[in-house]
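I have been asked to look over a protein record a colleague put together. Alongside the sequence sits a line of tokens, each denoting a local backbone shape. Please read both lines and tell me whether the tokens look consistent with the sequence. I do not need a full report, just your reasoning and any doubts. I have pasted the whole thing underneath without changing anything.
>
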Amino acid sequence: MRPIKAACLGTATLVTLLTCTSVAGAATDTGSAQARDKGRTITVVAVVQEVKRFPVPPVVTGSPKQGDQVVVRSLLFDEEDHQIGETHGSCVTTRGGANEAEQCLVTYILPGGQLTTQGVYFNYLDQGPFDSAITGGTGKYEKARGSVHSITTSPDPVTRRFTIHLV
């Protein structure tokens, strides 16, 4: 797992694209969910729209502490810079201090369905790359499995490239 920074993603967040299969193309119905998704890679860019940290009292300036929460929402864009979805996520700090860790749950709303992800992200404030597991989905992503790799491409606004690997 890799660190994430001041705005979560998936979640939490995302404007450069490298797409093996565009999300618009991924929305085309071509068979069963498992057959369509097998071996597919989708790359999207997310731009954070809202992020809010809820510190556990007593509020102390500096590193997050155990129990702090973050809620984030991002817009998702395809390779032609068209908005194609959103992410919605929340994270809870499970280890505070300089080497903090956060347990995060993120939902990607994409054409044709949703993907859910979960993962522990380390050093949230560093905005580094991170990975999460795909835990399921709806619609064309029903029974989806795989992983999502995130790279921060801009700190202001927080922009991330998400590479979704469906297996």
Notes: The helical segments are 23-26, 33-37. Confidence is low (pLDDT under 50) at residues 1-35.
